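_Backbone structure tokens_
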Amino acid sequence: MHTVAPVAAARPVAGGLVYTLRVLILIHGVTLLVAASMAGRALTYDSEFVLSVDQAAAEPHVMVGMVAHLVGLVQLIAAVLYWRPGRGAGWPALASLGLFLLGIAQHFVLGIGLNVHVPNGVLLFGLILVLLVWSWSPRAAARR
């Protein structure tokens, strides 16, 4: 007769890590949304219908972007803690790193022009949306 050893139930990732990551991703998403809403006020057309940036109106957009960078850095740290000691999935840490680097790149690509800044911003929104949906799903609490 064979006896089968009971399979140990997989323990979920610590609730504090999951909840912290969820909240940070949510705050990061909100700061990106606020920054994008402020960007529209900074865009103007001159008399020849050439799109330009009003620097005074762009200042709040830049400041909220800086807050988004700070939140993104803290999110990256939380995602790494979720992954390594928490034994959660590793891809959120990689996605958080990508978000952080894309966010930093936003400051430098504006000098190139809006034709790079705007698509990069759309990419930021897509990535944060994927992380946001994942973080509030039951799979976020599962160990790998």
Summary: The chain has a mean pLDDT of 86. The first helix runs from residue 15 to 42. The two ends are 33 Å apart (CA to CA). Helices lie at 15-42, 55-83, 91-109, 114-135.
